Amino acid sequence: MATEAAPSEEEPKKGSKLPLIIGLVLALAGGGGGFFAVQSTGAVDEVSKDVTQEPIYGDAEEVAFVALDPLVISIQGNNGRDHLRFSAQLEVAPEYAAEVETMKPRIVDVLNGYLRAVRVEDIEEPTALLQIRSHMMRRIDIVVGDGKVHDLLIMEFVLS
């Protein structure tokens, strides 16, 4: 009777190491795939070439900048009213600078209307500025014509 061991004294069965091995294999495969993708596209070489060669945006004579009037916009936030201070410049080809300059009141009106519809929660997102910039560029292209404005350069974007 004393020779039998009690069931509580048995050693617990160890778990399988298969999930650990699969995870390790997948991590190595992912790392190898990422390395291959970067090396096969030559992205590292292209970046170093861009730094040592011509500027990305070309010569200064190839662009003109049209400054937009600064905007202060009331936005309804969680803590009452917040204010967004916004100022920007438009990068245009020199031949379109005068035409875009004459369209500034419409551009400011479109941007003002769009920014009033933006919520504080939208602004606080990590990718908010990229999304807001793309929405504004789409509206600017509609107002002045597609392809006349190359970029929207945001000079001030402050929520207070």
Any overview of this molecule?
With 160 residues, the protein is α+β, with helices and mostly antiparallel strands. Helices cover 47% and strands 22% of the residues. It has six helices and four strands, in the order ααβββααααβ. Strands 1, 2, 3 and 4 form a four-stranded antiparallel β-sheet that branches. A hairpin with a 2-residue loop joins β2 (71-77) and β3. α4 (104-117) runs antiparallel to α6. The chain starts with 17 loop residues before the first helix and ends with a strand. The model has no long low-confidence stretch (mean pLDDT 80).
Topology at a glance:
Elements: H1 18-41, H2 43-52, E1 64-67, E2 71-77, E3 80-92, H3 97-102, H4 104-117, H5 120-123, H6 128-144, E4 149-159
Helix pairs in contact: 4-6
How many distinct helices?
Answer: 6
Structural class: alpha+beta
Q: What integer value in Å does the Rg equal?
A: 29 Å
Let me know the largest β-sheet: 4 strands, antiparallel
- Which outline best applies? elongated
Question: Unreliable segments (pLDDT under 50, ≥5 consecutive)?
Answer: none
